[in-house]
Amino acid sequence: MNYLSVSDAQEVIFKHIHMQKSEYLSLHASLNRILAEDVISNRNHPPYDVSAMDGYAVRFDDVKNAIPEQPVRLHVVDDIRAGNMPNIKVLQGRAARIMTGAPTPQGVDTVIRCEDTQDDGNDVLILTSPKQGANIRPMGENLMDGKIVLNQGTLITPSVLAILAMVKQKKVRVFAQPTVAILSSGDELEGLDEAVDDNKIPDANSHALYAQCKALGIEPTLLGIARDNPIELRAKLAQGLKYDVLLASGGVSVGHHDFMRPTLDALGITMHFWRVAMRPGHPLAFGTTEHGTAVFGLPGNPVSSMVCFEQFVSPALRQMMGHKKIFRRTIQARLGQDLKDRTGRAHFVRVSLEKDIKGDYVAYSTGSQGSGILMSMAVAQGFVVVPEYSDGLREGDGVQVQLLQGMDFQEGMDV
Ligand code: AMP
Ligand code: MG
What we know:
Blueprint: E1 3-4, H1 6-16, E2 22-26, E3 39-40, E4 50-51, E5 55-58, H2 60-63, E6 72-80, E7 94-98, E8 110-113, E9 117-120, E10 123-126, E11 136-137, E12 148-150, H3 158-166, E13 171-175, E14 180-185, E15 189-190, E16 201-202, H4 205-215, E17 221-226, H5 230-240, E18 245-249, H6 260-266, E19 270-276, E20 278-279, E21 283-288, E22 294-298, H7 302-320, E23 330-335, E24 339-340, E25 346-355, E26 361-365, H8 375-378, E27 382-386, E28 392-393, E29 398-403, H9 410-413
Parallel strand pairs: 1-19, 6-7, 14-17, 14-18, 15-16, 18-22, 20-25, 23-26
Antiparallel strand pairs: 2-13, 3-12, 4-11, 5-7, 5-8, 6-10, 9-10, 19-21, 21-22, 23-29, 24-28, 25-26, 25-27, 27-29
Helix pairs in contact: 1-7, 4-7, 5-6
The protein binds adenosine monophosphate (AMP) and magnesium ion (MG).
The site of adenosine monophosphate has 19 residues, from helix 4.
């Protein structure tokens, strides 16, 4: 059976998944989605040349020699506020008082800000002159009627949402979110609502995967726990095939009670691979149905399941949702210790980050890297990958740290 490198496995996944269809959402509901079409402006903004400052609209020629010792005196002929149209042309030797955002009157080409003027009855004294054209926002500077203002594929951030509002997109065409089902499997698993039983293992994966989906903006459905028997597993998996993506954890290895493999086969799912050369996360299955459901068989160990989600499921979901950036950010750091590894598989080591006196990041292992140890995952800020064919990395080596979720805020980075 195929035994793929991490990047080869990602390639296989990207080749077999489908972009989501698009849907119309109300403006506010479109936040954090991806635009499924170009958006064209239906207006000029500003609609005409407007002042960028509270001040005086003037003819540059009149004021170009103004200095505090020799101010230029102009007669004030108008007072223009935002939203009002000026009706007087400003002639030589004259000025109009103007507010930020108010249209500039005919005849002027420059605005002098209040701070550089002095009122004198019906006149104003101009104390200094900026460049010609200063403090005027030209018509269409922000948005040009008929021009594309936002491209398909744009992530709808708060500022993008504001632009959509300005061009009156009450409904926005975005890529749909994939529907995701989550299933845990194992006789030993104890559900969240079950009483504590010392002979059982609490189901962590359903909840870790739920949270990882939520962090991508997806509300997944929990299908619960399937026991290790082919009939129950098949019924639950069949339920999951109604979704765009099915995440089933546990039972993927080759143990006696690992029924995932034959059951997925029996359901007619085309399996593209079963194993990836990585640690944690060695048993990882990926398949697709003819209806386009993508099925991930994730390892049972909670850290393995989470790491596989990060490396494979998250980029796949983001690609399906139309994101252009599908991988998490990496930062350059230096290793604070040796990381030994001779397994011949890519090792995703959980690390925390510190800053040295020069401000460079130094990465340290968060402790025991066992695939069931969630604690060393919970305190991690990212992963360092010890490459597949290396016997480890040395203290002082430069590495890329793949940041985990939530590390984009400064306080998350500074430990
Ligand atoms: P498996 O892949 O089914 O062989 O499981 C590997 C290990 O992960 C076993 O120790 C399981 O008890 C554990 N495990 C499997 N599923 C879960 C789960 N949903 N939550 C926590 N641990 C699990
Ligand atoms: Mg099991």
